[in-house]
# Entry
Amino acid sequence: MPSISKVAYTPKNSSFSSILLSSEQNLRPASTAPLKPTLILTPFHESHIQAAIYCAKKQGIQISVRSGGHDYEGLSYTSPSKHPFVIVDLRNLSSISIDTESSTAWIQGGATLGELYHKIAEKSKTLAFAAGVCPTVGVGGHFSGGGYGMMSRKFGLAVDHIIDAKIIDVNGRILDRQSMGEDLFWAIRGGGGGTFGIIIAWKVKLLPVPEIVTVFNLTKTLDQNATQLLLKWQYIADKIDPNLLIRPRITNVNSSQNGKITLQATFNSLFLGGVDELLSVMNRSFPELSLVKEDCTEMSWIESILFFAGFATSESVDVLLSRTPLGRVYFKGKSDFVKQPISENGLEGIWKRMLEEADGLIEMEFSPYGGRLSEISEYATPFPHRAGNIYMIHYAAAWNNSSEIEEKLTWIRRLYSYMASYVSSSPREAYVNYRDLDLGVNNDGNHPSYKVASIWGTKYFKNNFERLVHIKTEVDPSDFFRNEQSIPPFSS
Ligand code: FDA
# Structure
């Protein structure tokens, strides 16, 4: 991670490239981007952002704001549409203050999830926050789009616990919940990053967790009955005790039996309680998985954060403070929502297509719904994927060579196309935080039209898209804050 001591970096500065790519987790967007930013700003103070907005408007340049830099299509640090842009990188605005008495936290917009989890654990053993698994994801983008994590069945999404925010609007004003009003406050909690202004801080309600939680990661290959287990999982995933979240990940591996490529399902699981209680829930609801005590580990909530991020639980929690992405690969992701269990035949058809592209990492992750996630109205926040969903699918392909981009994109698009009859339709829903430009792009990133944007907009936001457009029209009618998938105002 380069040291950041200045506020502005031009392409002539020797650390420009390293700063540009320092939070880049996905090598694909930058490798195909037609244009580099004119300037990277790393503000130390809110007034630097206000000045940036003022100058960018005057010069007719776009602003891309970056928090953790994990956007799947790189929209916080590239401009696929070739429009000149500056990056406002919030890494220096990342302080977090926790108030254990009121169980609340103020988090600056450039903080990462790892920094947030670390800070909470420093103050309390029984407070936590429900958000994503990867510690280097930024709160700026993540909270702007939803925020699903291992406690989402118990508590819902990150956005369900935001109680205040500070935003710098198109006129450079700093607004809090009261001064921005309830419409804008609603829109920024799930309407997607980069549309309504620059979030400089979020206030969240922290959540109570027991001192001991239990985790397990049980792996079964196709030879070990993975298909039958996933079939059954679909019938219990959203109904099981909300203290338990079982999130299967299906990936390609070499079979231990014959060395050929096969698939394995890893049942990543968190239970908010001790192992004995977990075993009794599992025996009642999912005995087919044959979970035993030896498969499980009791630990603190913060250790479970390390566990799901792939660290040894003996590792110092300080690893959560690193902003360096855990791995850098070429990557493409997509999402879907499942409302009816997929049949055995359907699952086998998926496996067939996954095995067609077995080199590189391919993955399907099934994130269960139900519990608190499904109790919250689909209109409460812009994130509309609530009751009626059994699980969300995350598709991913990751590879190491730029020469394979077209091949991998073709493969993942083919799998997505095969899945159409098994997932939500009219609209085919998608999760905005798993951003996917295949769903549609605003007029090459120039001022988008409502008609074009509604194609991808209704997939991400369903009926909430319309309200988002109304709010955008109110707060940013000239469409200053925009990107390839930002919400358009009506006039454009
Ligand atoms: P980044 O900085 O790239 O911003 C994303 C978008 O938000 C951009 O359009 C950007 O301009 C805008 N933005 C950023 N900061 C802003 C601010 N302060 N104000 C206004 N707009 C802002 N999701 C999930 O729900 N659960 C999970 O477990 C994971 N896990 C995960 C792992 C990995 C490795 C990756 C790469 C991604 C995830 N995600 C995820 C998806 C993640 O939630 C999504 O990519 C977020 O948008 C990333 O937020 P960042 O701030 O890191 O991205």
Notes: Residues 25, 64-72, 75-76, 90, 109, 132-134, 137-138, 140-142, 144-149, 193-194, 198-199, 433, 483 surround dihydroflavine-adenine dinucleotide (CB under 6 Å). The longest helix spans residues 46-59. The chain has a mean pLDDT of 94.
